[in-house]
Amino acid sequence: MALKKKLLQLFCLSKKDSKKKGKSIDPLWGASAPHSSLSVTANKSHLDPCSSGTGNVLSMQKLKPECSSMVSSLTRTEHGTGSSDYMLFNQFDVVQDFSDHHYAKTSPGKATKDWVKAIQSEWNLLQKNLPVGPAGTPYHDGLFFFDVRFPSEYPKCPPKVYYHSGGLRLNPNLYESGKVCLSLLNTWWGNGCEKWGKSNSTMLQVLVSIQGLVLNDKPYFNEPGYKNTAKTTVGEKNSLAYNQTAFVLSCKTMLYSLRKPPKHFETLVARHFHERECAILDACSAYMSGAVVGSSAGSVARYACDKCFADFKKSLTLYTEHLKTEFAANRSRLLELERQASAVDEIVPVS
């Protein structure tokens, strides 16, 4: 009963009707890129359903990023070192204020034994098996935020997932409205195991699908109408052009995240982009010089000097300047955040 009560508290559900807000998970996603490594992980001490805590929302964060030479953020052969400050950010944590969460005002339902059992199972899965994404995508070095809610009918129905798009459509599966189009979430058609199944589907599968199937190296072919053009001259040409657009929109998403980070992720966002700014700007420079988006530093693949590339170069040049300005401001914000954190640490409670 103590465990069940704890789970109900964490996920804002009650046996009886309650005025408490709906509970959800905030996984922070960083997509992958060449010569880099990025993963989402869970800190066991903050994921244990039996641990102490009095907040309402569970947050999830990625593992500290590794350094890279040009375009970065997943599966690399040479490992760099990231700031130890990343490890100070709780991978899973309970917070009191989740007012900017998309499902914060959603009315809770009645908890069931199946719901509690499923959440406990998810908890155990996520702390041990969070996914690592593939390399070489137009989403490298970006941070992508999703709000998740487990309805009272869960696991009979899939979780509700909302993407913080900033009004941008950088992937066929991620809408400006925040909709995540995925068979596993029953927001797109599918057959058999592609659809949500109460006895065998998990939140871990949803995260793996977003990282590996949505934020992939050729998102153009995620569109049903274009899937059959894969490996054709026209299809591959259009895919390259789509990746150019996706990277520019990813840069705009970086600006959006820097200017308006989700609650409780302010310091993590500031530190992430402080550590990744050189790699991001190096990638922008390489792409403006003709390197293919998502390619490694030593790749010989180049864009043709046509109108499509000229338009891409013009847009990327503009947003590179915006990023430089925002990165400079971010350094100042990070210094202030760390100053505030140090001041809090120095406060000695009076006994």
Automatic annotation (TrEMBL):
Please name the InterPro entries in this protein's record: UBC, UBQ-conjugating_enzyme/RWD
Q: Which GO terms describe its molecular function?
A: transferase activity
- Enumerate the SUPFAM superfamilies for this protein: UBC-like
Q: Per UniProt, which keywords does this protein have?
A: Transferase, Ubl conjugation pathway
UBC core domain segment(s): 83-255
Query: What is the name of the protein in this document?
Result: UBC core domain-containing protein
